[in-house]
Amino acid sequence: MHDIELLLALPRKRPPTVWDVHEDTIGALHTKAYLPRPLRSVLPPLIRMVEGRAERRLHLILAEESYRARFPGAHPVVPNHTYVPAAPPPPPEDSRVVYVGHISPARGAAEMVEIARRLRPYGIRLDLIGPADAAVRPMLRDAQRAGLLDWYGYVPNNHALRMAEGALAGLSLLHDVPNYRASTPTKVIEYMARGIPVITTPLPRAASLVGRVDCGAIVPFGEPGAVADAVVRCVLRLREDAERRAAMGARGYMEARTHYHWPAVAGEFVALLERWAQVPSTVAALRPGRTVPA
Q1: Residues of the chain with CATH 3.40.50.2000
Q2: Which CATH architecture has domain 96-259?
Q3: Model confidence over 262-291: pLDDT tens digits?
Q4: How far apart are CA 221 and CA 215, in angstroms?
Q5: pLDDT tens-digit profile of 145-172?
């Protein structure tokens, strides 16, 4: 399981259970607008207590090296990578910008609506692919009714990334909040895996990756209008130079395929689960009389 909320619902009698830690829970409180502000200040001690109890009673896998500071035990780290297609994706086109993932204020919802508004006169549309927080849904619906953007809602991740292929740029406009600062820039890597130039805010790991590989552009943090201005300038420069955006997409794809392809670490992940579940050396196959290696 991934969500800390489920730790409270676990039965006393249960099979071997693994908490795959994918979030800095306390750091993430800043992004949960639905929580009353006083509650956000009293929750950290409770969360630390729940995490400590989980560490004593469950198996843990950490998705980030930075999470080791929260847990004194020696827990394995299995990075949160993505599937990268074996064949290079199509080159970026010139009429569409995309965002794939959950949509919330801290993930740049207001900025993306403003970007869509400013790109419309240039004939460039914005596709938003993913569910949204209740607080931003009215804004997204209004923008869609006004013809500023297309919001598709929840789409399974693999299909969403196929929809994104061929985009001029992929947006990752996370705010500067604790939960995002030390995290692997998964969204950036997903765009790279699909050959899409990235436009990201300057969170340390995202900016370092995009800058080192030269697979996109970095825009500053700021109020929505200023961020939108910076993004639009980047988008228009990319549209004017097909060769440059194709090279960025190709460099991003090769980096993702070489260093962030999930099958490269999946074996370690499965081996941990098998060991904790005490899987025998062979297990029964569906067809009677046959066994397969575990």
Answers
A1: 96-259
A2: 3-Layer(aba) Sandwich (3.40)
A3: 999 999 999 999 999 887 665 554 555 544
A4: 19
A5: 999 999 999 999 999 999 999 999 999 9
